[in-house]
Design brief:
- This protein is α/β, with parallel strands linked by helices.
- Helix content is about 35%, strand content about 15%.
- It has two domains: about 10-225, HUPs (Rossmann fold, 3-Layer(aba) Sandwich), CATH 3.40.50; about 235-275, no CATH class.
- Strands 3-2-1-4-5-11-8 form a seven-stranded parallel β-sheet, with helices on both faces. The protein has a two-stranded antiparallel ribbon with strand order 6-7. It has a two-stranded antiparallel ribbon with strand order 9-10.
- Helix 2 runs antiparallel to helix 10 (about 265-275).
Length: about 280
């Protein structure tokens, strides 16, 4: 009799990626490097994917999906990251709740983690069934606000690389948790390892109901305090638009424009120039 395989840890960072920039890749790689040692300890496979949407229900237009997909593939080349096209080719608007339900149905025995910023987590009550996301997945929330600088890693905050566990004062922890919708606040845990350990433990019981769609145990929420670059795709598009009429040879623009050179992968920039993207915003 074949022994059933252990689950895969699958983490997803969603967004329009219009265009993909350094902060997107940084967040995904921080998730990957935090999960990799835990996956190795448990002998689990690990997949961290970027999940580009067809078009955000909060935005009226977006660059052609084929271009955003091509830029994503260029940006993740030589990294362990993947691109999941689940949402990309669907007719918009596509809602996150539908996507996590699909992922749970597709991977009923796997550990599913959805990555977002605290700005998105705070607004979950305004999403379509946003408070029900944790019926299907764990949430990994990056505190990208100015408040992140209030928790330095050198003195007040201790960081364990393997566990990705940070020790906060009671006041600091309460402040962070209070930013989440009230109904989700009790689901916050202190470390990434708790997401993995409790997920595996849940597989030892009849963990699925409703035809394998909804998990028996509520998903957990981990708040990641590591600093993430504040980068705006909107600002990048504006910089690119300004460059169209700028008296700069396109091959030297990336070097001369500090914001673009700092936050755009050179191959992504070359692709944008080649296909004349963002010439109108």
């Amino acid at each position: 009799m074949t022994k059933p395989s252990l689950p895969t840890i699958r983490a997803y960072l969603g967004g329009s990626f219009n265009p993909v920039h350094s902060a997107h890749i940084e967040m995904a790689m921080q998730v990957y490097h935090s999960l990799a040692p835990l996956a190795a300890q448990q002998n689990l496979e690990l997949q961290v994917s970027l999940l580009p949407n067809a078009r955000s229900p909060f935005k009226q237009q977006s660059t052609d999906p084929k271009h955003r997909l091509a830029m994503l593939k260029l940006a993740i080349k030589d990294t362990p990251l993947r691109v999941d096209e689940l949402e990309l080719w669907q007719e918009p608007p596509v809602y996150t709740i539908d996507s996590v339900q699909t992922l749970r149905l597709r991977y009923p025995q796997d550990i599913l983690i959805f990555v977002m910023g605290m700005d998105s987590a705070r607004s979950l009550e305004r999403w379509k069934q946003g408070l029900k996301l944790t019926d299907y997945v764990h949430l990994w929330v990056f505190d990208r606000s100015a408040n992140a600088s209030a928790y330095p890693t050198n003195t007040n905050l201790q960081h364990n690389t393997l566990d990705n566990k940070k020790t906060l004062s009671a006041k600091q922890r309460t402040t962070l948790i209070s930013q989440l919708p009230v109904s989700l606040q009790k689901q916050v845990v202190e470390s990434v390892s708790e997401l993995i350990a409790l997920s595996i433990d849940g597989l030892e019981t009849p963990a699925l109901e409703n035809k394998g769609l909804k998990t028996l145990r509520k998903g957990l929420i981990y708040i990641d305090l590591r600093p993430v670059k504040k980068v705006s795709s909107t600002e990048i598009r504006h910089q690119l638009l300004a460059s169209v009429t700028a008296p700069i040879i396109k091959d030297s623009l990336l070097k001369d424009c500090h914001y673009l050179s700092k936050h755009l992968h050179s191959a992504v920039y070359d692709y944008i120039v080649q296909h004349e993207l963002y010439s109108a915003d």
